[in-house]
Amino acid sequence: MIDSVNNYYRIQISPVGVFGLRRSDPSNRDLFFVAACRALGIAARLEPATKMPQYYKDGWVNVSFATGESQTFVAEKGRVRLVYDPKESPEPLYYIHFSLARFDGTAMKTLEFEEMKPISQFPGEIELDPGYYRLLTGNRLSDGTVLIRQEFFSLAKGENKKIDLLVRHEQASLKVIARWAETPLKLSATTIVGWIDPETEPGRHFLVDMEPVKESFEKAGIRMQVFATDIATGKKLAGRLPKETVVSTDDGWQLAKSFSKATGLKSETALPAFIVITAGGDVVYYTSGYQIGTGEQLLKTMQRILREK
């Protein structure tokens, strides 16, 4: 029995669970079908891009539970080569910065490639069924705005097509949002300065958030100076941040309080807090508290500064 209501959060159910309940939503039904086929010695799979259930008999055969029919899979596909600038940073990730969707007759359906898979790990040519497609790219800015770009294209059987993967970038110049003229920090160049407590959930989230962009920070040689409240806490940051990062202690968050007093921007009350500050004390970026994509926003800000030099 198909039940599309009660599994509201679309939790994956084991094939044994589906068999025991005798009910499932469409997604878990398809998984159960593949598992049942394999248990009986029949080669079966979910098609890598569309997740259509298939079994193998002189070629892959599509199974449609909606119509109760099966259709032999057409082996000859089209091929798409996504071309991107390898200097693009951060490297585009699937579902985060770009996605491919195919028109299924009623709407565009996103192809279910691995989430957060870097574009460099995709095959040189992606085999796709003939049809009408959309390549969508997005770039989230620090204020939450998302710059999107859509490109539509048709793919015929046996056709090879090259598509440029282009991500839009913010055009406006960075603005000075505050000034920390009497900063005790000795800065010789524009630097990222941050305060973080890795023992808190927002702090742990930031460290996880940094993982996808850590290598990009290191390649660009971006400087960071991060403060923890004590030496023991600071040691927990070792290895979790880019190599150019200097980890220091800010006892009682006195430095953070000094920054807040001088600029009016809160830092010690909502950690983690990060700023991008020039050697002259101009603050051009600030974020505080639980945010999504802070690591990426810091990277983009520093890259814009480097481009504008």
Mean pLDDT: 88
For this structure, the CATH topology of the largest domain is Glutaredoxin
What distance separates the N and C termini?
A: 63 Å
**Residues in helices, as a percent range:** 10-25%
Structural class: alpha+beta
Shape: elongated
Strand content: 25-35%
Major sheet characteristics = 6 strands, mixed
Give the strand order of the largest sheet, numbering strands 1, 2, ... along the chain.
12-17-16-13-14-15
Domain module count: 3
Q: How many helices in DSSP terms?
A: 7
Tell me how many strands there are.
17
SSE run: HHEEEEEEEEEEEEEHHEHEHEEH
At the fourth CATH level, what is the homologous superfamily of the largest domain?
A: Glutaredoxin
Descriptive notes:
It is a single chain. By secondary structure, the protein is of the alpha+beta class. It is 22% helix and 28% strand. The protein folds into 3 domains: 15-72, no CATH class; 78-164, Immunoglobulin-like (Sandwich); 178-308, Glutaredoxin. The chain is built from 7 helices and 17 strands. It has a 6-stranded mixed β-sheet with strand order 12-17-16-13-14-15, sandwiched between helices. Helix 5 (231-235) links the parallel strand 14 (224-228) and strand 15 (245-249). The mean pLDDT is 88.
Layout of helices and strands, plus pairs?
Layout (H helix, E strand, L loop, with lengths): L14 H7 L4 H14 L4 E3 L6 E4 L3 E5 L4 E4 L5 E6 L14 E6 L4 E3 L15 E3 L2 E10 L5 E10 L4 E5 L13 E2 L11 E5 L5 H10 L3 H7 L3 E5 L2 H5 L9 E5 L4 H10 L9 E5 L4 E7 L5 H15 L1
Parallel strand pairs: 5-11, 13-14, 14-15
Antiparallel strand pairs: 1-2, 2-3, 3-4, 5-8, 6-7, 6-9, 9-10, 12-17, 13-16, 16-17
Helix pairs in contact: 1-2
